[in-house]
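Kindly inspect this today.
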Amino acid sequence: MISLEHIKRILIVDCDVHHGNGTQEVFYDDDSVSFFSVHRYEPGFYPHSDDGSFEKIGKGRGLGFNINVPFPGKSAGNADYLAVWEHILIPVAWKYKPNLVILKELAGGKILVVLEGGYNVNYIPDCVLACVEELLEDPKVHQTFKRCPS
C-alpha cells in the first residue's frame, strides 16, 4: 500500500501517439509533478495545437518539469523511442527522483499504470497484456489472459 503522505514527486510518462495536452495543462505550473510526453507532432494531428512542442517546458514553479518529445509524422520507430528513453527520460527521471512513477527501478516498485482513451478497442487487450508482461518481467503471463472478443 502506498501512503499518499510520502508522495512528494510524481513522474507521469505519456508514451502513446497523441500528446497528453489535458494532463500537461493540469500540471504545467506544478513542480511536484513532472510530465513527460513522447508523441507524433505535425500540423493537423490531434490535439491540433502547439501544446506538444518541445518549447512547452512549464511555467512558474513548474518551469522545467514539463518535457515534450515530438516526433514529426510517422517517422518514429523502436530505435527512436529507445534513444529518447536512454538519453532524455532516464537521466531526467534519476535527477527528479520521483516517489511514484511507471519506471519501477526509480520508485522502489511503486507503480501506477493508467489506461485512458480507447482509440482502437481491438488492440487494447494486447497493449494491456504487453504492459503487464513487461512490468512483471514474465513473458508467460499471457497464458493466464484471454483476448477479449472483437
User: Anything to note?
Assistant: Confidence is low (pLDDT under 50) at residues 145-150. The chain is about 25% helix and 15% strand. The radius of gyration is 16 Å.
